[in-house]
């Protein structure tokens, strides 16, 4: 470990200027750099040699744990075989194999997958699929999109337009028009509720109100994260997603589930659609699709959507004018296939369902700490929210994230909420280790 740590420590002190870090306060970071130099299994190591347990599956993507040899070998073999070939008017076998494999774990009838490179690209691609579909059906006037307060749908212009987070939008006005936001589903009455709250399904009536107010025939789609992830694990109240589905069906509106965090076993089922028994029309995914190794995202559409768009084009015409140089990159596809093999072989989605009870018991044991304002959780995902410091949201969270890191726990914060979402390979002892560090740290606030 020290062999690695030393040169990187030198690097850190000399070369922290050039990289403009994403979602990071630069001055703050340079004053106290935290560099990860190694990762393996459930752990990360920092440049000082510290060992840190990964409480958030890195960024909710490393679901099978770090350093999986099977993925590394598949990527290496693919690089040797075909490092890159274009997809426009050409193909390679890996993308067909991966889409077929994904279809097997997606609900019916999702047999068509469009590949992208990130969650943000998946969202912008989904927006375009929605528009192409309505246009192909002669309903091109459907251009209004419905999102939600506290929604996070990535950072590209489409995703920022759908965002329900003021911080993500305030500096970027002039994004796509005609987006309206339903209320979020957090309710102080449901503080410390575990799993789906019993009350709150009526919040779905916001969609009905928009139909009444704007005319249902102007609304193209509703985008929701089944469990709002980046804003602190907001679990949908019982009946809420079902009611959204009903209103969409009654009004020709498409329902899009953003499964970038909830996909690939996080909730104890392949996707949230199966966990909650509600099937959307379009699903976006990314992150754990390659276990975090190679950037990749995807959009899955119901067969009818794919067929409508495809059949609308005259023969030989391109039916969907969209794609990226790196859509379905052969190396990403190889990583994706190896990742799905691990999920299947190790039964990680079922494992998540089995471990969830223990995980949530441990997390909810933090409830008695005075600094803890709320806990929400479902599957292998929980939000532990601290009271804000001096009424200033986010200050305490920012400090806590650093403090926890130096004490040996990596956990992603949003505002004052720690989002705990360990790799699905975690043992009970790993859960205990995470919760112990959280308890020690939160108890002295
Ligand atoms: N949608 C959701 C629900 C997300 O949680 C995220 C990332 N946290 C994104 C989209 C954006 O994904 P990416 O960072 O890969 O662009």
TrEMBL record:
Belongs to the class-III pyridoxal-phosphate-dependent aminotransferase family. GO terms for molecular function: beta-alanine:pyruvate transaminase activity. This is Beta-alanine--pyruvate transaminase. Keywords: Aminotransferase, Pyridoxal phosphate, Transferase. Its EC number is 2.6.1.18. Its cofactor is pyridoxal 5'-phosphate. The keyword Transferase applies. It holds the Pfam family Aminotran_3. It is an enzyme of class 2 (transferase). It comes from Rhodopseudomonas julia.
């Amino acid at each position: 470990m020290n062999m690695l740590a030393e040169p990187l420590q030198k690097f850190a002190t000399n070369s922290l200027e050039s990289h403009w870090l994403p979602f990071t306060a630069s001055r703050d970071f340079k004053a106290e750099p935290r560099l990860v130099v190694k990762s393996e299994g459930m752990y990360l190591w920092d440049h000082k040699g510290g060992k840190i347990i990964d409480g958030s599956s890195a960024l909710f993507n490393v679901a099978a744990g770090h350093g999986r040899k099977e993925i590394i070998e598949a990527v290496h073999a693919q690089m040797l075989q075909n490092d890159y070939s274009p997809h426009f008017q050409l193909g390679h076998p890996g993308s067909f194999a991966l889409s077929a494999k994904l279809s097997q774990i997606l609900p019916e009838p999702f047999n068509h997958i469009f590949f992208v490179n990130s969650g943000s690209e998946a969202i912008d691609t989904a927006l375009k699929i929605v528009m192409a579909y309505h246009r192909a059906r002669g309903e091109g006037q459907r251009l209004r999109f419905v999102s939600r307060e506290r929604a996070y749908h990535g950072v590209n212009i489409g995703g920022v337009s759908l965002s329900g987070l003021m911080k993500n939008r305030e500096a970027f006005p002039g994004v796509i028009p005609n987006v309206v936001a339903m209320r979020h589903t957090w309710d102080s009455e449901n503080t410390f509720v575990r799993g789906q709250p019993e009350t709150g399904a009526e919040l779905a009536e916001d969609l009905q109100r928009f139909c009444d107010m704007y005319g249902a025939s102007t609304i193209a789609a509703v985008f929701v994260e089944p469990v709002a992830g980046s804003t602190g694990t907001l679990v949908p109240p019982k009946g809420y997603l079902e009611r959204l589905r009903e209103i969409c069906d009654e009004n020709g509106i498409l329902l899009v589930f953003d499964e970038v965090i909830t996909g690939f076993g996080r909730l104890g089922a392949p996707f949230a659609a199966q966990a909650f028994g509600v099937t959307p029309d379009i699903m976006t995914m990314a992150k754990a699709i390659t276990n975090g190794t190679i950037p990749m995202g995807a959009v899955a559409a119901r067969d009818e959507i794919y067929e409508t768009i495809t059949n609308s084009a005259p023969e030989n015409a391109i039916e969907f004018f969209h794609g990226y140089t790196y859509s379905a990159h052969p190396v990403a596809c190889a990583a994706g296939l190896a990742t799905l093999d691990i999920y299947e072989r190790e039964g990680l989605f079922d494992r998540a369902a089995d471990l969830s009870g223990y995980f949530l018991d441990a997390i909810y044991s933090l409830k008695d700490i005075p600094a803890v304002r709320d806990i929400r959780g479902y599957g292998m995902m929980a939000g532990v929210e601290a009271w804000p410091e001096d009424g200033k949201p986010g200050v305490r969270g920012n400090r806590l994230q650093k403090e926890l890191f130096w004490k040996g726990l990596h956990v992603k914060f949003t505002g004052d909420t720690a989002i705990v979402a360990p790799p699905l390979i975690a043992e009970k002892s790993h859960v205990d280790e995470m919760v112990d560090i959280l308890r020690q740290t939160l108890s002295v606030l």
